[in-house]
Amino acid sequence: MMKNDRLSSLAGELPLLVCWPELWVKDSLKEAWAKEIIEQALQPTNAEENWVCKNCGEQHSSRFTDCWNCQSIKAF
Ligand SMILES: [Zn+2]
């Protein structure tokens, strides 16, 4: 459940901590998944960022969308 996700447009009008987006996780099993989403959201978008194939562990430049080694599609 996402709370305050649209209030960030009011940042500056309201105190930052009031309108900071909050991610509420009901299922504790999804906590790691939610943390991953938050980490991704906080990472600056870097076009030159390399990625690692989740299937075979091969490293790739951001220009590639498929793994040349095992043909897996890059997981976003
Ligand atoms: Zn691969």
Please outline what is shown here:
With 76 residues, the chain is an alpha+beta fold. It has two domains: 2-43, no CATH class; 46-76, no CATH class.
N-to-C SSE series?
Answer: EHEHEE
Structural class call reads alpha+beta
Low-confidence stretches: none
In total, the number of strands is: 4
Mean pLDDT: 78
Strand order of the largest sheet: 1-2
Distance between the termini: 21 Å
Beta content: 5-15%
What is the approximate shape?
Answer: elongated
Helix residue percentage: 10-25%
Small-molecule binders = zinc ion
Number of domains: 2
Number of helices: 2
Give the biggest sheet.
2 strands, antiparallel
Radius of gyration from the CA trace? 17 Å
Question: What features would you describe in this structure?
Answer:
The protein contains two helices and four strands, in the order βαβαββ. It is 21% helix and 11% strand. The strands form two sheets. The protein has a two-stranded antiparallel sheet. A two-stranded antiparallel sheet has the order 3-4. The mean pLDDT is 78. It has helices at residues 16-19, 31-42, and strands at 2-3, 22-23, 51-52, 59-60. The protein is α+β, with helices and mostly antiparallel strands. The two termini are 21 Å apart. The protein folds into two domains: 2-43, no CATH class; 46-76, no CATH class. The radius of gyration is 17 Å and the shape is elongated. Bound molecules: zinc ion (ZN). Zinc ion binds next to loops.
